[in-house]
Structure formats: structure tokens, C-alpha cells
Amino acid sequence: MAKVKLPISLQRFTEGMGELQIDAATIAELLKKMIQNYPQLKGKLVDEKGNTGEFIRLYVNEEDIELLGGKSTFLGDQDTVSIITPLAGG
Questions:
Q1: Would you write out the chain's pLDDT as a tens digit for each of its 90 residues?
Q2: What is the pTM of this model?
Q3: Domain 2-84 -> CATH class
Q4: Left (φ > 0), alpha (ψ -120 to 50) or beta: where does 41 sit?
């Protein structure tokens, strides 16, 4: 199972959990399972076409998935997926 680290801004959609354990072979499968388990994440992580949001960044073991294999990036049992969202402020 991959470990998923969530930013505070998404924890309200996962019953306050900042870390999840998800059994998935790829990033695409991981996102699908996260949304199945926590439907409110759908509009936050992916758009209506299933593409990750413009400002959502996903990292596997601190490497941007866009430099790996995108949503086809394979996951191992010891991998950590970090979800990064933008910070607002001014």
C-alpha cells in the first residue's frame, strides 16, 4: 500500500486524516480509489474529465509525477505520494 500525504486544505474531505494508506498500482488507480472512498475530493483533485486540477501537484517519493510517468506512474508498497495544493494569501 502506498502512503498518501494530504495537505491541511484537503483533510476536511477525509474526516480530518492527513495520511491515508491506499492499495493502488498507479497514480490513476490511487486517485480513483481516493475519490471512491472520499467523494468530496472529486472536484478538488480532478476535473470532470478526470485530469488532475491545474494547481494540484503530485509527488512520488519527492519526485514530480510529470517527470516520471504522469498518472501512469507505478506505485510500490513503500512509496509515499504527496499531494500539494496552492497556498492563498496576500
A1: 899 999 999 999 999 999 999 999 999 999 999 999 999 998 888 888 878 877 889 999 999 999 999 999 999 989 999 999 876 655
A2: 0.89
A3: alpha beta
A4: alpha
